[in-house]
């Protein structure tokens, strides 16, 4: 689920931070830049793990800051496909069950079947069949859920200029914001789903 990724970046340290230790200033700047951000094809950055190498720092004309090329390792959230994760349900919608952040989705076809969406309660329900008949097992917000990662997608959300078609359209229409990193999960096999379903009473 969490991996260490080796990265290289040039970090700018302003002059008023020169009195601090260089490693501390660089760590702070790297976390400001990367923490809680998605790096395309890498994953969701969590925090700096360590700095492995500092190259020479340079001061450029007209800029009193130092610029240092830094080799470092960063903790990144990037589950591999078929990995089993446990998290809390953040909410449900007709599109499916949302995981511990909005961009993890378990679509209806990947739920335990038969399943239905309860419009009144705004939850998905597994209609579990027993000898006594069907029992409704609700997937409530805040419940712990075990799921398998079956797909992932990265979207390049870098800013770009408007296309000619967009320029002629109404300025009141806001473009739909896409998530830079999404995971698709599945609970359609025994042992997956709410933890409470599989624990003995």
UniProtKB/TrEMBL annotation:
GO terms for cellular component: RNA polymerase III complex. It is found in: Nucleus. GO terms for biological process: defense response to virus; innate immune response; transcription initiation at RNA polymerase III promoter. Residues 83-198 form the RNA polymerase III subunit Rpc25 domain. Residues 157-172 have a biased composition (Low complexity). Residues 9-64 form the RNA polymerase Rpb7-like N-terminal domain. Keywords: Antiviral defense, DNA-directed RNA polymerase, Immunity, Innate immunity, Nucleus, Transcription. Its main location: nucleus. It comes from the Eukaryota. Residues 156-182 are annotated as: Disordered. Component of the RNA polymerase III complex consisting of 17 subunits: a ten-subunit horseshoe-shaped catalytic core composed of POLR3A/RPC1, POLR3B/RPC2, POLR1C/RPAC1, POLR1D/RPAC2, POLR3K/RPC10, POLR2E/RPABC1, POLR2F/RPABC2, POLR2H/RPABC3, POLR2K/RPABC4 and POLR2L/RPABC5; a mobile stalk composed of two subunits POLR3H/RPC8 and CRCP/RPC9, protruding from the core and functioning primarily in transcription initiation; and additional subunits homologous to general transcription factors of the RNA polymerase II machinery, POLR3C/RPC3-POLR3F/RPC6-POLR3G/RPC7 heterotrimer required for transcription initiation and POLR3D/RPC4-POLR3E/RPC5 heterodimer involved in both transcription initiation and termination. Belongs to the eukaryotic RPB7/RPC8 RNA polymerase subunit family. DNA-dependent RNA polymerase catalyzes the transcription of DNA into RNA using the four ribonucleoside triphosphates as substrates. Specific peripheric component of RNA polymerase III (Pol III) which synthesizes small non-coding RNAs including 5S rRNA, snRNAs, tRNAs and miRNAs from at least 500 distinct genomic loci. With CRCP/RPC9 forms a mobile stalk that protrudes from Pol III core and functions primarily in transcription initiation. Pol III plays a key role in sensing and limiting infection by intracellular bacteria and DNA viruses. DNA-dependent RNA polymerase which catalyzes the transcription of DNA into RNA using the four ribonucleoside triphosphates as substrates. This is DNA-directed RNA polymerase subunit. It comes from Tupaia chinensis.
